[in-house]
Each structure stands twice: as C-alpha cells, then as structure tokens.
Design goal:
Layout (H helix, E strand, L loop, with lengths): L1 H22 L3 H14 L4 H6 L12 H6 L3
Helix pairs in contact: 1-2
Length: 71
C-alpha cells in the first residue's frame, strides 16, 4: 500500500510540475515530466489529454505519441 501511495504522490508532483512548466513556456521539460507521470501512473492519461493548462503542448511533437504509449 505504501508503494502505491508513493507512486501516486510522486506522479502527482510530476504532473503539477509539467503544468507549471507549460505555463512558463518550458514545453520540452513539461513533456519529460508528463512522460514520467505516465510511467508511474498511467491513470493520468485522461486528465493530461483534457487539462487546459497543457493546451500549448497539444500541437507539440511527441504529445500525442506520449498519450498513445502504453494503451
């Protein structure tokens, strides 16, 4: 149980950092953070696809591939 909680907490931190980095224009860094997020917790996929904070990433090379990975 502790390991599952830790993975969730860490994935959540990477997700929120990706949102922050996107707002600051650090899009490559944000994509890397989202990749780690999904490696830790694939359940974030839907939220990543719909989050308005991540809108600038949607047309970026690698974004759709990131979401499709592991499906």
């Amino acid at each position: 149980l502790r390991t599952a909680w830790s993975r969730h907490a860490i994935s959540r931190a990477y997700y929120h950092r990706a949102c922050l980095r996107t707002r600051r224009g650090r899009l490559d860094d944000a994509l890397r953070d989202l990749s780690i997020t999904l490696e830790l917790q694939p359940r974030w996929r839907e939220e990543i696809a719909e989050d308005d904070d991540l809108q600038p990433l949607r047309d970026r090379e690698g974004f759709n591939e990131l979401l499709a990975r592991g499906r």
